[in-house]
Design a protein that fits this description.
The complex is a heterodimer of chains A (112) and B (113). By secondary structure, chain A is mainly beta. Chain A is built from no helices and 11 strands. Chain A starts with a strand and ends with a strand. Chain B is an all-beta fold and 113 residues long. In chain B, the strands form 2 sheets. In chain B, strands 2, 4, 5, 6, 9, 10 and 11 form a 7-stranded mixed sheet that branches. Classes of the chains: A mainly beta (112), B mainly beta (113). Chains A and B meet through strand 4 and strand 5 of A and strand 5 and strand 10 of B.
């Protein structure tokens, strides 16, 4: 079953624009909601994460928005830069569980 | 403090062979998780090791097995390789089995011919 669904699959944004990636989930037991960034030939790297007790978290140009009732969370990248071009994964997890449940990924391209 | 390292970087095997992949966890971390990432897909959880014991397993057959050593480094072994085993194998370490944040290594690219 597909517990985590990302959209869009690919995204092209102009330099300086806002990139928005969405993640919808089914498992209401998830209580940790991270976004990972992966460059070609590299492993995923944690970008930003949120817990369900807050609706928004901002770190620099990156913001997570969380909507518990809709079972969705999103990643916003402000002032997108060519160096942000990568694949982004949402990977929620339940408390005490061992595994991150990854989405299919969103390939982001920032045009200069 | 060193990050997660994996070896080898690339590996080519033929169907039916066996392979061993290695991972050194980040300093101070006692938990290692292994993931399989097929081309164009998100990583899929294989299993996790905590203090040398398996601590959870994903939907992978028994021919996928692992070990964790006293220094918390880990091995992933795959027997009777199949073409579909071709993937990037990622190791992730975390401070403890209850810690949410996992730090990934660069992966080992396995190609099965």
């Amino acid at each position: 079953q597909q517990q985590v669904k990302q959209s869009p699959q690919s995204l092209i944004v102009q330099k300086g624009g806002i990139s928005i990636i969405n993640c919808a989930y089914e498992n209401t037991a998830f209580d940790y909601f991270p976004w990972y960034q992966q460059f070609p030939g590299k492993g995923p790297a944690l970008l930003i994460a949120i817990r369900p007790d807050v609706s928004e978290k901002k770190e620099g140009r990156f913001t997570i928005s969380f909507n518990k009732s809709a079972k969705q969370f999103s990643l916003h990248i402000m002032d997108s830069q060519p160096g942000d071009s990568a694949t982004y994964f949402c990977a929620p997890k339940t408390n005490g569980a061992q595994k991150l449940v990854f989405g299919q990924g969103t390939r982001l391209t920032i045009n200069p | 403090e060193t990050g997660v390292t994996q070896s080898p970087t690339h590996l080519i095997k033929t169907r039916g062979q066996q392979v061993t992949l290695r991972c050194s966890s980040q300093s101070g971390h006692n938990t290692v998780s292994w993931y399989q990432q097929a081309l164009g897909q998100g990583p899929q959880f294989i299993f996790q090791y905590y203090r040398e014991e398996e601590n959870g397993r994903g939907n992978f057959p028994p021919r996928f097995s692992g070990l964790q050593f006293p220094n918390y480094s880990s091995e992933l072994n795959v027997n009777a390789l199949e073409l579909d085993d071709s993937a990037l194998y990622l190791c992730a370490s975390s401070f403890d089995r209850t810690t949410d944040t996992q730090y990934f290594g660069p992966g080992t690219r396995l190609t099965v011919l």
